[in-house]
Structure formats: structure tokens, C-alpha cells
Amino acid sequence: MAILYHHPFCPHSRFIRLSIAEMGIEADLIEEKVWERREAFLALNPAGTTPVLVEEQIASVPGSRIIAEWLDETRGLALNDRRLLPENPSARVEVRRLVAWFTEKFGAEVSEPLVHEKIYKRFMPGDVGGGPPDPAVFRAAKSNIRYHLKYIGYLIRQRKWLAGEALSYADLAAAAHLSCVDYLGDVPWDEDAVARDWYARVKSRPSFRTLFEDRVLGMAPSPVYADLDF
Amino acid sequence: MAILYHHPFCPHSRFIRLSIAEMGIEADLIEEKVWERREAFLALNPAGTTPVLVEEQIASVPGSRIIAEWLDETRGLALNDRRLLPENPSARVEVRRLVAWFTEKFGAEVSEPLVHEKIYKRFMPGDVGGGPPDPAVFRAAKSNIRYHLKYIGYLIRQRKWLAGEALSYADLAAAAHLSCVDYLGDVPWDEDAVARDWYARVKSRPSFRTLFEDRVLGMAPSPVYADLDF
């Protein structure tokens, strides 16, 4: 069976958890605290980041975008119309553009700083950067999220799903990153009703269910987190 | 003919310039000053970053990693043993891992801050962040580069090229990022002789020649920049 090294609130890991659930791939989830810089984990991914996928055929596939390509190359054709990276090269560019948008841009501007400040720092020892959250950091992230929601709304006004007429990695990446912020109650859903409706659609998929069970010790999820009619 | 929107000292653009030269693809180069946030350019890439490739078959391919995938999907098979992304899925993971390493990690820790502080800021108006370089930023980058050179040396002690026995995107991405830092004279080549020898091999390829002609107005390149026997 596949093994996925992840953190429950790492948005990149959540993107892959959703993707493998959509593909019907079972994996053992092993929680990795990246700040511990475990030697055996660094051997799997010298960059020291989650997620990392291990399978019988390969010792290590590190990083969400690389795992997504690997899954498509090893399973894509068999998925037929449920494939998450379309067959047409131009359509693949649009999916990859939006995956990059949410993993790099939304990640750097919103989800990574919020998760780092509000979740990771609670569990990190002081000597590697743990401690109370920095309000300046999360104020910026909470302001940045508004234009990203508007961008999702803009795209969904033209298309059924983020990258076109079919569900793709783009939707799963975006929803994975948003779901971490949603746990914290920091998504201003009133900002764009079309974006909210799209998220409700993704959130109601069976692949999303396992995310609802994740909990941060001592920090309850926002009331809307697992609510399908938020 | 293809059009590549780039900046001469954008390391991501250089990665694609090297790649298309290796593939024998001709392209018109159009210099883009991303800080101007030109509307016509933002329409090609809403993220506002270089490089962007435009071809007859597609309106826009934004971002070096996405362009590299596009080029492989549209030309890869015809290149046979000169293909820059190998055919085997496991080997593709290793190439993509190292491309991600150099574009994301080396980019964020070394080449982007150095190019931004020492080159871009000379030409950016003050109201969008132009001005004198911040020594704290480039001191950190000049310290970070050392472990990256050691990592290149470590890999090349085991393999002919960075990702295996054949030249790949990994070599071109790494060399593209290093070449920007080399212009500034900030690569401590004495740090690792094996890394230096690998760079000399990549640098002597015909694809590298056009990079040697790039100049920053009012800033001469380091003496070793275009020297094949540095």
C-alpha cells in the first residue's frame, strides 16, 4: 500500500489526500512534523517538506505538484473522464497554471502564513521558531484572501469548474488550501457568493470527508468547517 | 514563430531560454519589466511573472515549470535521446524534484533576492520598491548559496548530470539560476570543485551563448561570467 507522509493541516498534503481519494487510491497516512527535521524523512525529501508519497514502484515522490504529475502518469489514462489532468496539452497548461497559482501564490500569501502562525507555532519548540502567533502576519494573510476569492468567483462565472468543464487538480488544490483557512474561521465567505457555491460543491464530494475529522489539539474548528450548507 | 516574454536577468526566463535553445526552437524575445504591471501582459499571465511563452497553438503558457512541461508534451517524443524530461516516470520525478529545488528553493533563498536587490531595484521606480540594495538581504543569499553548491557537488559525485546519466531540465534550471548570480560575481566557486566542473560543462554548451551577451546597464559582469575556463 502507498504511504503518504503529511501533516493534517499542511495544505499541500491535503491537495494530495483529496487527489488520491478522488482516484480511489488507498494510502497509509503518517504524520510528519517537518520542524523536527527527522533524518529518515530528509532522506526521502532533502527539501524537508510535506507531502511525500512512497509506493512500491518508487522510493519517494516529494512535493504536491510532483506527486500530482506522478499520479497522472501512472494512473491518469485508466481514469478516463475522471482524470484530474486533462489529456489536451492546452487544457493541461490551464490546470497547471491554477495549481501553481494556489500552491505557490495562495500558499505564500494566505494559507502557509496562517497555518504556520496559528497552528504549527503552537507545537514547535521555541528554539525552532515556536511561540505565539504574529498578528501582523495573519492580518496580511486575511487581507490577501479577499482577492483570491474574487478570482475564484471570476473563473466560476465563466466555467463549471476552476480550469474548465470538468473537475481537475485545480479545484482540489484550491479547495485544499482554502480548507485549512476555513478551519481557522478566516475565510470571508460573504465576499463572493459564486466562490462560496463552488467551494460547497467541492466540499460535498466524498473525497473531502476525511479532512473534516482532522482536529488541532485545543483548537476547535470554525462552526462552518464541516457544514455542507455553510 | 514563438514569442517569449522574459527579463534578461530573470532566472526562470533563462531556464526556458536554455531549454528552447537545446531543443532548437526559435523564439522572439520580448523584454518585460514585470514591475510595470502592463495590462496586456497581465492578460497573458494574471500572476504577473516572467517567463510567458506564446505560440500559434496556444495563447499563453505562463511560468517556467509549466512551459517546460508544455515543451515536453509538444516536442518531447521527437527529441529522442536529447529529450530533457526522460520517459521513465521515476526518472521524471527526479528531474522535477531538482527543477523544483532550483526554481523554488534556490530561487527564494539565493537568485531571486540577489537579482531583485542588485539589478531590478536599479530600474524600478521608488514608488514600487526601487532604490539601493539592502545589504542584509544579499548577505543572507550569499551565505545560502554555499550549501546549494555543496548539494550540486554531492549529486555530481554520483551521477554524470544532476538528475542522472543524461542532461535534463534539472541541469538547465540550476545553471540558469546560477548564471544570474555569476554575473554579479557572487558564486563562491572555490567552495566545491566538482560543482564548478559541472557548471563549466553546462556553460560550454552552445545554448548558453546568448546569455553571455546580456548586460545590465552600468554594471559590468564579473570577470568569470563568460569565461569558459573560470
TrEMBL record, chains A, B:
Residue ranges annotated for the GST N-terminal domain, each copy included: 1-79
A Pfam short name: GST_C
Q: Which InterPro entries match?
A: Glutathione-S-Trfase_C-like, Glutathione-S-Trfase_C_sf, Glutathione_S-Trfase, Glutathione_S-Trfase_N, GST_C, Thioredoxin-like_sf
Q: Taking every annotated instance into account, which residue ranges of this chain make up the domain GST C-terminal?
A: 88-224
Which PROSITE patterns does UniProt cross-reference here?
GST_CTER (PS50405), GST_NTER (PS50404)
**Can you state the subunit structure given in the record?**
Homodimer.
Give the protein name, as stated in the record. Glutathione S-transferase family protein
